[in-house]
Design brief:
It contains 1 helix and 10 strands; from the N terminus they run E-E-E-H-E-E-E-E-E-E-E. It is mostly beta strands. Strands 6-7-8-9-4-3-10 form a 7-stranded mixed sheet. Strands 1-2-5 form a 3-stranded antiparallel sheet, with no helix packed on it. A hairpin with a 6-residue loop joins strand 1 and strand 2. The longest helix is centred in the first third of the chain and has 6 residues. Bound molecules: zinc ion (2 copies).
Length: 119
Amino acid sequence: MTIKGSCCCGGVRFELFEPPLMMGTCHCSRCRKAGSGVYAYVRAEAFHWLAGRDLVVRYQPRPPMRFNRSFCRRCGTSLGDPDSGRILAIAASCLDDDPGVRVAFEEYGPDAPPWEKPA
Ligand SMILES: [Zn+2]
Ligand SMILES: [Zn+2]
């Protein structure tokens, strides 16, 4: 069983050969601006591009910030960072199938904006 993922325009498609190791939500301002906050952590060996790798552009922040941000350059969908590390942080918002794993932790909770939760 594979878990499929794609961008908004459908140009970028990928699949996971196994469920994520874990999932977590980050509330920091950088994730918020990048348009993603929930990540599925996947072993690099379990990630496979199906289409559109040429559409993927990457933003590399200046140190000390270190997490790269990849996007589809046609539709802007935030993909997480599918290109670096042994454990990839994939934007869970791209997943088309239920990964079978649930969010287990949150990061930067105090940085969450006041409008994030229902008033
Ligand atoms: Zn796209
Ligand atoms: Zn973050």
